[in-house]
Specification:
Helix content: 40-55%
CATH class: Alpha Beta
Shape: elongated
Order of helices and strands: EHEHEHEHEHEHHH
Strand order of the largest sheet: 3-2-1-4-5-6
CATH superfamily: Glycogen Phosphorylase B
CATH architecture: 3-Layer(aba) Sandwich
Radius of gyration: 18 Å
Number of domains: 1
Number of helices: 8
CATH topology: Rossmann fold
Number of strands: 6
Structural class: alpha/beta
């Protein structure tokens, strides 16, 4: 990926479509690199907007700061998440946010658009940060905070892992079984 050991690594994962907001993230990165040069953005995924996003990155002078991986397997994705410093999910709308949960489970501080299911999963200033949807300046501000505030990063990492465990499939299955058991017991006694 060409990441130098001292560079901060930001990762964003998803289908490269308008809804996922990668174009907003690139605009935010053009703001961030004016103050913080040692930052690299890894965009994981593919889609109909990839060529347009690559051109946008070049036009914004981000060629040395952005890597497009295309589609990768889960093993490679886990390696990237393990070495990343920040995850960004900047969808213009997202019904749930599995990618944000994957980042949280990996112990990453996450920045999400304050929209849809992302707002339901990530609690602002507790286990992640909210950026205004479609607002590059808001997103850049969140990224810059995490680049300089080690105490905030530590707090968000810890709380993100705790939150992600609540969404573990084993825990969800246990809760579903308990709910069915409770419903069955109530039905018998009515």
């Amino acid at each position: 990926l060409g990441v130098k050991p001292w560079e901060k690594l930001i990762v964003s994962v998803g289908r490269m479509s308008h809804q996922k907001g990668f174009h907003i993230l690139l605009q935010a990165m053009s703001i961030v690199i004016h103050r913080y040069r040692d930052v690299k953005l890894i965009l994981v995924g593919d889609g109909y907007m990839r060529g347009e996003l690559e051109r946008q990155a070049s036009d914004l002078g981000l060629s040395e700061h952005v890597v497009f991986t295309g589609f990768i397997d889960d093993v490679y994705l886990k390696a990237i998440l393990k070495s990343a410093d920040i995850m960004v999910v900047c969808s213009l709308y997202e019904p749930f946010g599995i990618v944000a949960l994957e980042g949280m489970a990996s112990g990453l501080p996450v920045i999400v658009s304050a929209t849809g299911g992302l707002k339901e999963i990530v609690e602002h200033e507790v286990d992640g940060l909210w950026a205004s949807p479609g607002d590059p300046a808001s997103l850049a501000s969140c990224i810059e905070r995490l680049l300089v505030d080690a105490d905030l990063v530590s707090k968000l990492r810890f709380n993100a892992i705790v939150k992600a465990k609540r969404f573990d499939w084993r825990n969800i299955a246990k809760k579903v079984l308990e709910a069915y058991g409770d419903a069955g017991r109530r039905a018998r006694f009515q």
